[in-house]
Write a structure and sequence with these properties.
12 helices, globular, 323 residues, alpha/beta, 11% strand
Length: 323
Amino acid sequence: MDGKVALEEHFAIDATLGEPNAFAPVWPELSRRLLNIDASLADMDEHGVAMMVMSLNAPAVQAIPDAATAIAVARRANDALADAIVMRSDRFAGFAALPMQDPDAAALELTRCVKELGFVGALVNGFSQIGNVDNATYYDGPAYRAFWATVERLDVPFYLHPRNPLPGHAPQYQDHAWMLGPNWAFAAETAVHALRLIGSGLFDAHPRLKIILGHLGEGIPALLWRIDNRNGWMKLPHRYTAKHSVAPYFHRNFYLTTAGNFHTPALDNCLAEVGDDHLLFSIDWPFEDIGQACRWLEGAPLDDARRAKIARENAIKLLKLKI
């Protein structure tokens, strides 16, 4: 089908490109694509992708301990993306990179990106390192409440994107580096962050927040019943600040994309748990293949109305796209 909209698609600037590391065999081509969003256009045309919402690669800004540097790099990346989008606004939209090391600066940058640059939300690569490389700061604390109020007021979604845990915080991966990244650690890390946001009472204070998770929910949909069942075991009170069990917040405030998880049983689980209004198509370009993602969605056992909602209609509504 034509007209698909993809939400978790990435670019880089020189300051965030990083080292080849695990991507060494394909790094020349991968880095070329990250530095040139137009590199996706031929595959988009071939497979019926009308628009990609671009966001900065990971961990990028979140891995810069110095707040002033993080602010400068985020602004530079957002300006570069805005310049690229102007050239092809019919095919690309943007999520803002944010310097979460400074919540006030992050709120200001998000406001600038939405109001002045026309971005449709933000994508942040997990926790931020603040002050030193061994620090991991999550966004459920009181210091971030004014920032979340800004997100709610702007009425744009916040995409919580994965990053690996810090080595000193994750001894369980020692001698098992194969579990890092998208194999396992990305989902585990991001799911914990999402549950922290829920348990903190954030969505009681800001009930209109919209959080996007990729990869069909980072494993949470499959475990949601168990989380709440054990949390309410023997009718003990919930041991967190939030007023309700986890599922109501997840159903109301979270949206899930298919980025990098093209597996029909996992899709069926998400449909059963959150419904088709909160599911959106994504690819995870250039780390995943556009053709594979599109062929899977087009072949999934969905009726035409449900496929259209996931492929484009939900994205148009959530992001207020004019396409």
